[in-house]
């Protein structure tokens, strides 16, 4: 028979000294852990503060750069690797007519790249990493109008040289192109004026001889003679030709003005009343309305030359209304937004047939006319007189909606 195994002895409780030592060790470990926790907590707080400061500085720099981009007068856009627009500043909005919310995230080719040379856009730079520097092209804006642009592109890379996209900077060349056209036109007109003066002098001498012989024939031929009418036609033709030559010489000659202070409203009333007498005599159904902001508007003009300007413009206005209508003449002081200065503005508007853009573009070109028997020197001479007064002349017109001529003159 197997003997029974005696029971294991029960552990005796540790002595008070051992328990106390273990408690002290636990307290010590807790204090060390607490110290480490406080140290880590402090470091975390410091790190958070540094991170907050870093984020604040980053936001400040981002805001500063954004303000710079928005303040630029040149358009700036960024294209990502997929060829989509990721940034579009305020100037870009003004030049293209698109809002940033309309274009960001959309393909460059749908917005800026429409109908342009594939070699002259940001996508070419994205593909080849070759920048465009100070090149020109045309842009179709949101309204479908062509806008001449000067532009540059450059690859956008990170600190390690990896390609992120392309940045494009562009600006509107419309004003520059207009100035270039104006300079070209002035040079052409100057050469034309010199040629006209030479031709006029050469033509005038034989005209005098023709007139003399025609007068002799006119005196010798009886009134009942049928040949008398032919002589009269010769004299009329010579007079018309002589008038054209005189206009040529007047246009070619440098206009010298002698400005003096006048009451413009009184001056305009005198010129208009004089012209209204002609309208009444010719029984034309035309009304001239006067709209002056002030009863007295002072202006510094050459009365003789400026009378010619106003009369010619009134004549043009009435000729555009063969069935009658209204002509409105107004004058006021207003601020010229381009130079931020006050000027005197004179406007003559009619309710006539108006002009096409093609006619409007050639309006100030010498010898260009749409009138039968016209010399084509009227508006060209008016422009010379206005510019001799250091002023500007603009014409706004639309077929079927009349014409408005605006003359701006500097104040004293």
Structure, briefly:
The protein has 412 residues and is an alpha+beta fold. The protein has 11 helices and 12 strands.
What key attributes describe this structure?
3 domains; 11 helices; alpha+beta; Beta-Lactamase; five-stranded antiparallel sheet; 49% helix; five-stranded mixed sheet; Helix Hairpins; 412 residues; Heat Shock Protein 90
Predict the CATH topology of the largest domain.
Heat Shock Protein 90
Superfamily (CATH H level) name of the largest domain: Histidine kinase-like ATPase, C-terminal domain
| Stretches with pLDDT under 50, minimum 5 residues | none
Query: What is the SS-derived class?
Result: alpha+beta
What is the distance, rounded to the nearest whole angstrom, between the alpha carbons of the first and last residues? 142 Å
Helical proportion, percent range: 40-55%
Overall pLDDT confidence? 83
**Helix/strand order:** HEEHHHHEEEHHEHEEHEEHHEE
Q: What spatial form do the alpha-carbon principal axes imply?
A: elongated
Query: How many individual β-strands?
Result: 12
| Biggest sheet, spatial arrangement of strands | 2-1-5-4-3
Q: How many domains, as an integer?
A: 3
Look at the structure and give the CATH class of the largest domain. Alpha Beta
Number of helical segments with 4 or more residues: 11
Task: Provide structural commentary.
This protein is of the alpha+beta class. The chain has three domains: 72-172, Beta-Lactamase, CATH 3.30.450.20; 177-252, Helix Hairpins, CATH 1.10.287; 260-410, 2-Layer Sandwich (Heat Shock Protein 90). It is built from eleven helices and twelve strands. It has helices at 16-71, 90-96, 100-103, 108-111, 122-128, 174-220, 228-252, 264-281, 303-319, 357-361, 378-388; strands at residues 75-80, 85-88, 132-140, 146-157, 163-172, 260-263, 286-292, 298-301, 325-336, 341-350, 392-397, 403-410. The strands form three sheets. Strands 2-1-5-4-3 form a five-stranded antiparallel sheet. β3 (132-140) and β4 form a beta hairpin. α6 (174-220) runs antiparallel to α7 (228-252) and α8 crosses α9 (303-319). It is elongated. The model has no long low-confidence stretch (mean pLDDT 83).
């Amino acid at each position: 028979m197997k003997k029974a195994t005696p029971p294991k002895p029960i552990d005796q409780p540790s002595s008070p000294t051992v328990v106390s030592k273990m408690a002290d060790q636990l307290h010590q470990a807790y204090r060390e852990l607490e110290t480490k926790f406080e140290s880590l907590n402090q470091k975390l707080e410091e790190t958070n503060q540094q991170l907050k400061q870093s984020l604040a500085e980053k936001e400040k720099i981002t805001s500063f750069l954004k303000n710079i981009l928005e303040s630029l007068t040149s358009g700036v856009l960024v294209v990502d690797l997929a060829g989509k627009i990721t940034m579009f500043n305020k100037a870009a909005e003004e030049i293209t007519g698109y809002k940033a919310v309309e274009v960001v995230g959309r393909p460059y080719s749908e917005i800026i790249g429409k109908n342009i040379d594939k070699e002259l856009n940001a996508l070419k730079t994205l593909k080849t990493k070759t920048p465009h520097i100070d090149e020109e092209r045309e842009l179709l804006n949101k309204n479908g109008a062509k806008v001449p642009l000067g532009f540059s592109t450059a690859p956008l890379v990170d600190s390690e040289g990896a390609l992120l996209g392309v940045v494009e900077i562009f600006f509107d060349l419309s004003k520059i192109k207009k100035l270039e056209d104006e300079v070209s036109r002035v040079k052409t007109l100057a050469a034309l004026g010199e040629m006209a003066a030479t031709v006029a002098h050469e033509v005038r001498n034989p005209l005098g001889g023709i007139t003399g012989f025609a007068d002799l024939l006119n005196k010798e031929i009886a009134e009942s003679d049928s040949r008398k009418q032919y002589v009269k036609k010769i004299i009329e033709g010579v007079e018309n030709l002589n008038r054209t030559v005189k206009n040529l010489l007047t246009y070619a000659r440098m206009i010298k003005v002698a400005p003096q202070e006048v009451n413009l409203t009184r001056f305009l009333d005198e010129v208009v009343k004089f012209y209204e007498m002609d309208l009444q005599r010719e029984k034309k159904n035309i009304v001239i309305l006067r709209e002056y902001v002030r009863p007295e508007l002072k202006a510094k003009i050459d009365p003789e030359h400026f009378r010619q300007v106003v009369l010619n413009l009134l004549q043009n206005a009435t000729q555009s209304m063969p069935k009658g209508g209204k002509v409105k003449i107004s004058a006021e002081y207003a601020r010229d937004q381009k130079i931020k200065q006050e000027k005197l503005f004179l406007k003559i508007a009619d309710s006539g047939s108006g002009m096409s853009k093609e006619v409007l573009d050639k309006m100030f070109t010498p010898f260009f006319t749409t009138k039968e028997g016209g010399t084509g020197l009227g508006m060209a001479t008016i422009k010379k007189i206005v510019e001799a007064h250091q002023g500007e002349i603009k014409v706004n017109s639309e077929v079927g909606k009349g014409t408005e001529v605006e003359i701006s003159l500097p104040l004293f």
